[in-house]
Design a protein that fits this description.
By secondary structure, the chain is α+β, with helices and mostly antiparallel strands. It has 3 domains: 135 residues, GAF domain (Beta-Lactamase, 2-Layer Sandwich), CATH 3.30.450; 118 residues, PAS domain (Beta-Lactamase, 2-Layer Sandwich), CATH 3.30.450.20; 205 residues, 2-Layer Sandwich (Heat Shock Protein 90), CATH 3.30.565.10. The protein is built from 12 helices and 18 strands. Helix 9 runs antiparallel to helix 11 and helix 11 runs antiparallel to helix 12. The relative contact order is 0.05.
């Protein structure tokens, strides 16, 4: 018998639906068409489907439906282009996502209003699952009898009486746990589970009691029971995170040596934890963006003040405007660093270095004045106190530039940051001519800012010593 080379209608419908709902390549779609055409040339007593994973979450799309001969289908109409949802057909989504065959999982069809049992096979191309083939049979009566209690979830005929009693005792204990826990026997079948496991797997779309199901029908991370037993490409005792049905779960497996059990699977719903983490990251990014914009705005203010400084003729006004520029840039330095940090703390030495560089650019005639920054250990502070310290250090360094060296073109300014016993001490020292040559600078706006910020913002102590060898300003506050 010669096989037809193509089936135009099937080919067209599969390609159209794949273009509309997926991001599969032409080569992958060719493979799906090839699989569909193979079913058209064979007989069968089952409804057979080919589903592809939608580019939207938690749904698959039926691209092919072959109904059995003689009107024995459960469906009045073809299901092509219908959606397969996780809550109705867990095996379909599970196999598409993991590549593991699902054997006999219960599904529900709204068109025929039937419970049915599906066997789902993955079809791969270049080591990637591109679609699944589904065989179905009606099991509504079988499942109903199970829920009516006519069959035991433990299947007591297969379990010794003493073991059955032991399982029920252990089940009472593990039902107190918030995580889902499942115990598997030597053959990989569930022999014990807690109520949380039922809740989780109902959420995954399983429509029957999972008691007695095989591990290979319950795994969502591409592992099989045989792999676990052989240790093939599987790390036992190591937790991993998975996304199932839009929720995050932490999964852990480990082997045990009890007579009736071989493997334990634990699932922990960490969706809320992940959401909180995402919120924290989102807020952190937003805060960093705010600091970045504040820094840009402050630099704009500084630019406007510079322009105004160049236009005024009064030396005193020019001096005041330049000092204001320096103060604005000192505050901007803190926001610049905060815009680059994930944490809401700033490394104090980095702020100090930026301030020193800004002041050095302002005093073009003081290029030979060396500013040295040191620390005995890294000091990190919150933004409010860092802004206050930035302004204090800015004023002290600026005062040294303006007054300490008089007509000298060289000199040294040392800024020392020390953290000891929970207290931060900052020294700003110069080797200039001393405080007496500064006239009434101690009553200046700059030193007023220093005194006020040390006392009110930092709740600290300030001490200034000066002689002919230079001046040292020291302030201390609690970390």
């Amino acid at each position: 018998m010669l096989l037809p080379l193509s089936f135009p209608m099937i080919d067209s419908q599969i390609r159209h639906l794949c273009r509309l709902h997926t991001e599969l390549s032409d080569t992958e779609v060719d493979r799906i068409v090839e699989v569909a055409e193979s079913f058209e040339t064979s007989d069968g007593d089952y409804d057979v489907f080919i589903d592809v994973l939608s580019k939207y979450d938690n749904e698959a799309i039926v691209v092919y439906h072959r109904r059995p001969d003689g009107g024995r289908s459960m469906y009045k109409h073809s299901l092509v282009s219908d959606k397969a949802l996780r809550e109705n057909e867990p095996g379909v989504l599970r196999t598409l996502e993991t590549g593991i065959m699902s054997r006999g999982l219960v599904a529900y069809t709204t068109q025929a209003d039937h419970l049915l049992r599906q066997t789902v096979y993955p079809i791969e191309h270049n080591d990637r699952v591109i679609c699944v083939v589904i065989y179905e049979r009606n099991v509504s009566e079988e499942i109903q009898s199970h829920f009516d209690g006519t069959t035991s979830p433990y299947q007591g005929d297969e379990i010794p009486i003493n073991l059955s009693a032991l399982l029920r005792f252990k089940e009472t204990v593990i039902n107190q746990l918030d995580d889902a826990i499942l115990f598997f026997d030597d053959d990989g079948f569930v022999k014990l589970k807690n109520s949380q496991a039922d809740i989780y797997y109902q959420r995954f779309g399983y429509r029957e009691n999972i008691q007695g199901l095989h591990y290979d029908n319950l795994s969502h991370d591409r592992t099989s029971f045989s792999q676990l037993m052989k240790g093939e490409n599987v790390s036992l005792h190591m937790s991993k995170e998975m996304l199932i049905g839009g929720r995050y779960y932490r999964v852990k497996r480990f082997l045990i040596n009890e007579r009736e059990f071989r493997l334990v699977l634990i699932l922990q719903d960490i969706t809320e934890i992940k959401r909180k983490e995402a919120e924290i990251v989102s807020k952190s990014v937003a805060i960093r963006e705010i600091h970045h914009r504040v820094k840009n705005n402050l630099q704009t203010v500084a630019s406007v003040l510079r322009i105004q400084s160049r236009q005024v003729k009064s030396a005193e006004a020019k001096k005041s405007l330049n000092e204001s520029v320096s103060r604005v840039l000192a505050i901007a330095a803190t926001h610049e660093l905060l815009s680059m940090e994930m944490e809401a703390k700033v490394k104090l030495l980095e702020v100090t270095r930026i301030i020193g560089a800004n002041i050095q650019r302002c005093f073009v005639n003081g290029n030979n004045i060396q500013v040295k920054m040191t620390e005995n250990q890294p000091i990190y502070l919150d933004s409010d106190r860092t802004v206050a310290i930035a302004l204090i250090i800015n004023e002290l360094i600026q005062n040294s530039y303006e007054h300490a060296f008089d007509n000298r073109l060289d000199g040294n300014i040392n800024v020392s940051l020390m953290l000891e016993n929970g207290y931060v001490t900052i020294d700003v020292a110069d080797d200039g001519q001393g405080f007496t040559a500064r006239n009434n600078s101690c009553n200046s706006l700059g030193l007023s800012i220093v005194n006020s910020y040390v006392k009110d913002k930092l709740k600290g102590k300030l001490k200034i010593d000066s002689n002919s060898s230079g001046t040292i300003a020291k302030f201390t506050f609690k970390l």
